[in-house]
């Protein structure tokens, strides 16, 4: 049984909620934001950002720039994996591996200075699942647990045609 519920919003804007700007979305695949409720303001990365945004103005700017670059890069992708061609290895790279049943799943991270955006490539799509500030060089055990729980929730209730997709 998953630790958190899984709902999905399409990644179709940046700056939510105060400075929301719609963005273009890829035509051949979807990019989802994981949420644990049907309330858009509770999207996981929005909650994560609230945890640190007030304490760090530079991080707030870096979050915006990270999302802006991601949104522009996604429009240049024919498939989700093309994203690797648009970032260098220091910007987009494997961050953690979690076990799902009998297989392992790589969790990737996009970085902008001390801001980290975690995502997985799920089938032909991307699911964005965590936003955090780098506190140490190595991912802490508590951060790994958050990532593991969220990926397990995605695999327990994946974005698919038989689930409601919220946009």
Structural category is alpha+beta
The 3D shape can be described as globular
What is the percent of helical residues?
Answer: 25-40%
How far apart are the termini? 25 Å
Mean pLDDT, all residues: 88
Share of residues in strands: 25-35%
Order of helices and strands: EEEEHHEEEEH
Oligomer: single chain
Query: Which consecutive residue ranges, at least 5 long each, have pLDDT under 50?
Result: 161-167
For the biggest sheet, the summary is: 6 strands, mixed
Please count the helical segments.
3
* Beta-strand segment tally: 8
Structure description:
There is one protein chain. The chain is an alpha+beta fold and 167 residues long. The chain has three helices and eight strands. It has a six-stranded mixed sheet with strand order 1-4-8-7-6-5. Strand 6 and strand 7 form a beta hairpin. It is globular.
Question: What structural keywords apply?
Answer:
167 residues, alpha+beta, six-stranded mixed β-sheet, two-stranded antiparallel sheet, 3 helices
